[in-house]
Amino acid sequence: MTPYKPITISAAAFAFCRYGLALSLWIGIILQNIWVIAGVVLVLGLSYLLKVARAPMIVMYTQTINRLWRSRDEVVNEHAIRFAHLVGTIIGTVGLLAYGVNHLLGWIVIVLFATLKSLSALGFCPAAKLYDCSTSGHCAFIPHPRGR
What we know:
It is a single chain. The protein contains seven helices and two strands; from the N terminus they run βααααβααα. By secondary structure, it is mainly alpha-helical. It has one domain. Helix 2 (34-50) packs antiparallel against helix 5 (78-101), helix 5 runs antiparallel to helix 6 (103-121) and helix 5 (78-101) crosses helix 7. The protein is globular.
């Protein structure tokens, strides 16, 4: 597995995806609408399957708003973002399944999911950091053996 695969995407499209999904999760929680949460999980699952450049939110923004107001491009690690989409899909699915068993437990998992997604939207994606840490061999929170 290659730890780093750079891909260039619109910075505004990437922000639209991150903020849009986080905001959708919080709206679903506030309205207590499980279908909104399921929609976010579906988008994350499709983003994982289709990869970053063809992720639904990225394509939607690129084919509409980005045609009118071009944004700068941003280079991201496709593997790390794809791993983050997979982790989000799994956590969201666990939340939906927990909701099916016990509504309170489901909402607790979904609030945890929304909190993690909000952190990701603000630039600190725990899943992408975990991917980078596991593939590079040196992590920000664990000192490197050679002292770097």
